[in-house]
Amino acid sequence: MSEELKITKICCIGAGYVGGPTCSVMAYKCPNIRMTVVDKSAERIEAWNSDKLPIYEPGLFEIVKERRNKNLFFSTDIPTAIREAELIFISVNTPTKNFGNGRGRAADLKYVEDAARMIAETAQSSKIVVEKSTVPVRAAESIMHILRANQKADVRYDILSNPEFLAEGTAVADLINPDRVLIGGEQTDDGLRAIETLSWVYERWIPKERILSTNTWSSELSKLAANAFLAQRISSINSLSAVCEATGADVSEVAKAVGLDSRIGSKFLQASVGFGGSCFQKDILNLVYICEGLNLPEVAAYWQQVIDMNEYQKTRFSQKIIECLFNTVSDKRIAIFGFAFKKNTGDTRETPAITVCKILLEEGAKLEIYDPKVEAEQIFSDLTSASVTENPEFVRQAVKVQSDPYTAVERAHAIVVCTEWDEFQSLDYNKIYGSMMKPAYIFDGRKILDHDALQKIGFHVQTIGKKLNR
Ligand code: NAD
């Protein structure tokens, strides 16, 4: 690598779940590069500059504290950061457009466009502009149009795609030791040179053989494809969980037997109430939308099934709860264990708990919700926007958020496990049984509890993908 490829100043537009951790790890691993993370939200930047970071990720605070104000800066001064940087990450949100019929909805690229326009208006020297956000295939073309339309003399732009594969809850570990880094760019001398420059940054701590370069469109599509494959595995095993419940097969045994095939592998084969989170559904909807636009309806329908199966699983689980409780939950107290979309996060975006709670509330249940990390206001806001009813007071009357699981279960007819928090495995279920209405039911939507032990206590237990005796 020639010395001239080295860069010393990077700016990242967007200080969210991706931009913040990515730049913090980069600053930690590249002490000679000055990283400036900018955001239009003054509140978010203030939090990044404080002792209470805006997001929780194991190990993140320590890294930020170590590098902040040395070679890691958080700022709202977007123009200065753009002007000074040689390389700019665009790491803004790309949410699903909130109109359409629910099948194949486009990603809203307005924030990406805003970022591109800011770069075009501000840049006075050449820049490598890197799509870090998850975008539709050929989004780089739109960014290039905006940049070139405003291009000043002596300023050149190279656009790269460098999607992020971190998972919430393990972001720092994923960034320090990724399976791969993907860099897509134009296959021209200039494009290849830009790829080499970004690759040089990652090579400061990542072995070169894990850095993969492709053309721009392959890279953009690979991110959507990776999330689609991961979600597809969950929907596949969940579809089989319904067959197991109807036949006496056990989905855990099936998953183990299937996963031991080295061609298949065992990861992401855990049956559950369904997947959630901000990315899987959004990215598959986007993939479906792209396929429909390309006049590939069969391909669109194929991927749409992954989402439909996830909806089916959430609804199927909720209906089973109602059926078991003598076909009515009206005025019954039901304890909900866990509201986050997965353990070790307070994130509730697209969490299956919303669907389960919505269905139970529509049937007249009274819910007592306990989650160790999710704030009560977040739960009320999620359930209110799930439009259980037009009356905003309804949710407040039918739902209580408890800060202790033992309070949540008092006089409850049933417990529903929606999130796989470790602490649910070590609760005193004898004590819990004693304080519940009888018969007492547990619906384990995450398959984390000891079902035999619970049955011995006297609980009626239902879980995903296994017919239990009582
Ligand atoms: P986020 O909502 O947490 O953060 C985005 C930030 O961008 C916000 O703070 C917002 O204020 C800021 N922003 C928007 N427009 C701006 C502008 N014009 N100028 C300055 N700041 C602006 O989003 P996120 O979770 O970090 O996701 C970012 C992208 O990365 C998305 O495309 C997402 O799909 C993708 N992604 C997310 C994850 C994840 O686990 N969250 C993982 C991989 C990829």
Automatic annotation (TrEMBL):
Keywords: NAD, Oxidoreductase. NCBIfam families: NDP-sugDHase (TIGR03026). PANTHER family: UDP-GLUCOSE 6-DEHYDROGENASE, UDP-GLUCOSE DEHYDROGENASE/UDP-MANNAC DEHYDROGENASE. This is UDP-glucose 6-dehydrogenase. It comes from Pseudolycoriella hygida. Pathway: Nucleotide-sugar biosynthesis; UDP-alpha-D-glucuronate biosynthesis; UDP-alpha-D-glucuronate from UDP-alpha-D-glucose: step 1/1. It catalyses: UDP-alpha-D-glucose + 2 NAD(+) + H2O = UDP-alpha-D-glucuronate + 2 NADH + 3 H(+). Belongs to the UDP-glucose/GDP-mannose dehydrogenase family. GO terms for biological process: glycosaminoglycan biosynthetic process. Involved in the biosynthesis of glycosaminoglycans; hyaluronan, chondroitin sulfate, and heparan sulfate. GO terms for molecular function: NAD binding; UDP-glucose 6-dehydrogenase activity. NAD(+) binds at residues 14-19, 39, 44, 92-96, 133-134, 168, 279-282, 349. Gene3D superfamilies: Cytochrome c1, transmembrane anchor, C-terminal (1.20.5.100), NAD(P)-binding Rossmann-like Domain (3.40.50.720). The gene is sgl. The active site is at C279 (nucleophile). Pfam families: UDPG_MGDP_dh, UDPG_MGDP_dh_C, UDPG_MGDP_dh_N. It comes from the Eukaryota.
